[in-house]
Design brief:
It contains two helices and six strands, in the order αββββββα. The chain is an alpha+beta fold and 151 residues long. Helix 1 runs antiparallel to helix 2. The mean pLDDT is 81.
């Protein structure tokens, strides 16, 4: 079963946009931390990580109420996951580069497949087995693998 060209196009361009967004957030979180705080929970990005804090307001630096926050910080990156538990608090940080790698891999694979399909069509090759279709009518099936003509 062949992937639909629109699906491949969506994966290519959507993956590229998601990858760029993740890289920008990852690098930007080295200088600025941002997130949402409410009911003893803080969720955000900081030091190149996606962070989750669950703690009483007294442990969260005296932050009361709920809402969005953004604060500058000295440039710093955390490269590995951390999971810390204190008496009444829990802190989990997952590096954003862990999300960049799969997004980038899927995007590169979709771009590569699309490039191969376009190259085979330009050189008049079978899309499945790479057989040279020169001399065959445009409606003929591939003599090697039986695949129909390229759309």
């Amino acid at each position: 079963m062949k992937p639909h060209p629109k699906l491949r196009k969506t994966i290519k361009w959507g993956g590229a946009a998601v990858t760029v967004l993740l890289v920008v957030v990852w690098i930007g979180s080295g200088w600025c931390q941002a997130g949402y705080v409410g009911r003893g929970t803080l969720v955000g990005v900081s030091s190149g990580c996606a962070c989750f804090h669950k703690a009483p307001a007294s442990i969260l630096g005296g932050i009361t109420g709920s809402g969005w926050y953004c604060a500058g910080q000295p440039f710093d990156f955390e490269w590995w996951m951390s999971d810390e538990r204190l008496r009444a608090a829990r802190f989990v940080a997952v590096p954003l580069w862990w999300f960049v790698l799969p997004a980038l891999s899927a995007t590169v694979a979709a771009w590569r497949l699309d490039t191969l399909v376009r190259r085979r069509a330009r050189l008049n090759l079978c899309s499945k087995c790479n057989y040279d279709r020169t001399g065959l009518s445009s409606a003929a099936v591939c003599p090697e693998c039986g695949t129909g003509p390229a759309a």
